[in-house]
Amino acid sequence: MTPRRLLPYLLIFLVLAGVYAGLRWRQEQQVAQQEQAKKVFQVKETEISGFSLNRGAAEISLAKQDKVWNLTAPLHTKADQTVVDNLLVTLARLRMERDLGAHQDLKTFGLAKPALVVKFTAQGRPHQLAVGAKVPGDQAYYALRDQDPQLFMISVGSKDSLDRPLLALRDKTLLTFILSEAKGLRIKSGNTAVDLEKTGPRTWLWVGRPDVKVRGDRVEKLLREIHLARIRDFVQGSPPNNQTLGLAPGKRLEITVKTAAGNHILFLGAKKDDTVYARQGADGPLILVDATLPETINKTLNSLEDRRLWSGAIPEVSRVVWGPPGQVWTARKDKDLWKITGPNQAATQLPAARLELALWNFQKLEGAPVKAPGGAPGGAPAFVLDLFNQSDKPVFHLEEIGAVGQNTLKVLTRTGETPVVALIPQTAFRQWQEEMHRLTVSAEKPGPAAGKGQAAPGAKP
């Protein structure tokens, strides 16, 4: 068929395509118009500058100032920004589930005295939503907007999203500090105080105890716990005195987070069910927080001292030697692999993550230092471990000296020049040794022709 004969068909196709596109556009416009018509209020959530929730004589009012929502009644305090934002989205996108037309007898629909009235201002214009009784079947609520007599229904979910109690609207941040700006942490219990000072990105100093090496990772984890902690509830009415609540000086647990912007203080007191009483500083409101917070703080205090046998940087290790003397294995890092050789020239290679995971598990081993005996321990060690850096300089040495009882091992370690003798759990150390052994089970001995340019039996080309 010649191009001239195809031209009429092409024109027909283009006309039909245009008609189809026009119909689709018209249908989409109609759907959009219908959805827009179902919207209760023609506003956007960003246009709302203030609103109130009225339940009879009780009123909760909020106002936006400098992009921050604050409660203005029945008290003046910061609001929970996330909860407020979700409420405003619900209000701006509220849709009619069904239009019931004009009705005069509002009492029948629970709208003579609405259970909930939401009043708000958008672009300077006041609006109002009155929510009445539930529709038979409990799937929706009767509602009215502004002064419009048209009765309609809104979903149960929409009503529940709008009908928020005061507790839900209050800001429940426990301490408002920026985590990265924390430069000090003070924890005082009774007459005992622990002062910690940040000395580097991940290092902390125990003020007054320079001889104690601090687990910086545990201090950082505790700060994250405090930063993420939230208020469970606000105690209303006239509470008992601080002595009864465990918040009196000398009885309370005091936490002070130090930042460049100032100190953030929290007092924790007596337990109440699964919470504890607390105050944000001496003049803060009486609140309840999870009882797990003081438990976490006390647990961290008891484990602040860094008793790890080795706490160096794993990425800096480029050679590892381990095993009984005379039968050691040697692993050398080559890009993303560790090449391992052992007794009788057995050899294998593993992905870098395998051996580095074993080193990471070794870092979990903690020991209790004991007074070093005079001179070096006698006899050959049962097991040795040596770590070398990228310049092939030793960064850590370990020797297994022997068992102490049934559950403890004595080891000698050296990170710098001074050796340290420590007691470690035998089970944990044996489990780590077994992990290192599994790294070598795939090692194969070279065949008779090895060393002459031929591959060992079973080796991959």
The end-to-end distance, rounded to whole angstroms, is: 60 Å
Overall mean pLDDT stands at 89
Number of strands: 26
How many whole angstroms does the radius of gyration measure? Answer: 35 Å
Shape: flat
Which strand order does the major sheet show?
Answer: 4-3-2-1-6-7-8-9-5
**Biggest β-sheet description:** 9 strands, antiparallel
Low-pLDDT stretches are 449-461
- The tally of structural domains comes to 3
**Strand percentage:** 35-45%
Decide which structural class fits the backbone. Answer: alpha+beta
Instruction: Determine the number of helices (DSSP H or I, runs of at least 4 residues).
Output: 9
Describe the structure.
With 461 residues, this protein is an alpha+beta fold. The protein folds into three domains: 45-169, no CATH class; 179-301, Immunoglobulin-like, CATH 2.60.40; 314-438, no CATH class. Helices cover 24% and strands 36% of the residues. The chain contains nine helices and 26 strands. The chain has helices at 3-38, 81-92, 156-162, 166-169, 216-228, 242-245, 292-301, 352-362, 426-438; strands at residues 48-55, 58-65, 68-73, 77-78, 98-102, 116-122, 125-134, 140-145, 150-155, 182-189, 192-198, 204-206, 231-234, 253-259, 262-272, 275-279, 286-290, 317-323, 329-334, 337-341, 347-351, 368-370, 384-389, 394-404, 408-414, 419-425. The strands form three sheets. Strands 4-3-2-1-6-7-8-9-5 form a nine-stranded antiparallel sheet. α5 (216-228) runs antiparallel to α7 (292-301) and α8 (352-362) runs antiparallel to α9 (426-438). The two termini are 60 Å apart. The model is unreliable at 449-461 (pLDDT under 50).
